[in-house]
Amino acid sequence: MKSSGFSRIFAGVACLAVALLGATFTATVPNAEGDAGSVPSFQEFERSSYVDVDGAYVVNGDEVESTKAGLKKFYERMVGPKHADEEGLIVNTVSGRDDKWSASQALNLTYCVSTRFGTRHADVVSAMAGGAGLWESASTQVDFVHVPAQDGSCNTRNNNVLFSVEPVSTTQYIARAFFPSTAKRSRNVLIDDSIWSSGSWEPVDILAHELGHALGFRHEHTRPESGTCFEDNNWRALTPYDAASIMHYPQCNGSSADLEFQASDAAGVRALYGS
Ligand SMILES: [Zn+2]
């Protein structure tokens, strides 16, 4: 936590997760003395959920559920019985299956960068390329492809790209992303202006974290080894736990404050998509 800017952002990122998860924490963390009375109803949970610009619900700090039905499923997983889990990188699972792109799609992950970023457009293009490059240099089976021709109509309705990168104005997060299983209408990376003043978290690394979600990776800190910030058990371990993973929030007992890409992250993307 080098700067006050970092602390502010840090609080901003953390607060949503705390607001969303705090109420269910006692019911879902292993060995916690939770009781049924501490579990909010779905209605209470929904009211406490942050709704994004396009009507999607933001969960786990910077991930998205497109619909109320999706939020309900998320809620049910949160409050449901905990199932056993064993084990830096973990992949999201949906109904027990890895949430990942097909081999051919992974080699053509097209995106646009909205011209609505204005004077920051070139900076976003550059930071996206840098963030994507960290994953791409770890695996030849993953390729993010910027399609500049679509930048002028860059939104979730543009079917010429797999996803869009768009500006947002919010105090809820710096940036947020989606998973491969996310419906096209919510398949965007939203970036708040605070990305340019996030202290020791560089824009390239923040976007690499978001693109990690876009590849299917979950927050490393949901693993039991972190001892905090539990989300749910719908994931599969790809590598041993790494408290310094780029997918691990530093404020969740992370061992690194600067959100840098780690060897474990490289190993994880190779484990899921190939080298
Ligand atoms: Zn995240």
Distance between the termini: 34 Å
Oligomer: single chain
Range of helix content? 25-40%
User: What ions, cofactors and ligands are bound?
Assistant: zinc ion
In words, what does this structure look like?
One of its GO terms (molecular function) is metallopeptidase activity. Residues 1-32 form the signal peptide. It comes from Nocardioides vastitatis. This is M57 family metalloprotease. The chain has 275 residues and is α/β, with parallel strands linked by helices. Helices cover 33% and strands 14% of the residues. It has helices spanning 4-28, 42-48, 68-79, 103-106, 121-138, 203-215, 263-273; strands at 50-51, 57-59, 63-65, 90-94, 97-98, 109-113, 144-146, 163-168, 175-176, 188-192, 235-237. The strands form three sheets. It has a five-stranded mixed β-sheet with strand order 7-6-8-10-9, covered by helices on one side. A three-stranded antiparallel β-sheet has the order 1-2-3. Strands 5-4-11 form a three-stranded antiparallel β-sheet, with no helix packed on it. Helix 5 (121-138) crosses helix 6 (203-215). The longest helix is centred in the first third of the chain and has 25 residues, at 4-28. The protein is globular. The model is unreliable at 1-37 and 81-87 (pLDDT under 50). Bound molecules: zinc ion.
Which short descriptors sum up this protein?
disordered N terminus, 3-stranded antiparallel β-sheet, alpha/beta, binds zinc ion, 7 helices, 275 residues
Provide a quick synopsis of the model:
By secondary structure, the protein is α/β, with parallel strands linked by helices. It is built from 7 helices and 11 strands. The N terminus is likely disordered.
